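hey
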């Protein structure tokens, strides 16, 4: 899902995007968590704003946020969960990204989506 707003007098194209990524199955919960952890941690050029373990519909999850330092102001919010299905464990990552020019409404929409994620297995 993607949303863009046009705001008169504001530089740039303010936008936000939410993506759901289903990663390849892992053989263990630990393997799935390692992949989710790697994706949720800030890398070079990013500053970690938050990282915590959360519960998503009875499944353990990760909620993390980071902001880019170059280019400045891009924010990523991650919600990751490892879902066991039979012998496989699927890492799922929901990522919300807003750019520096994003409006408050776009930021609020991304937060609402991540806060409202529900799982049915």
């Amino acid at each position: 899902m993607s949303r863009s707003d046009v705001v008169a007098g504001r530089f740039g194209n303010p936008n936000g995007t939410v993506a759901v990524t289903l990663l390849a199955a892992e053989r263990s919960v630990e393997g799935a968590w390692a992949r989710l952890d790697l994706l949720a941690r800030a890398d070079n050029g990013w500053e970690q704003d938050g990282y915590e373990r959360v519960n998503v519909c009875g499944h353990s999850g990760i909620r993390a946020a980071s902001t880019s330092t170059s280019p400045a102001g891009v924010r990523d919010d991650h919600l990751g969960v490892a879902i066991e299905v039979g012998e496989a464990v699927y890492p799922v990552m929901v990522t919300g990204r807003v750019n520096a020019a994003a409006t408050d409404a776009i930021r609020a929409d991304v937060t609402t989506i991540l806060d409202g994620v529900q799982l049915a297995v």
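The chain has a mean pLDDT of 84. The longest strand covers residues 72-85.
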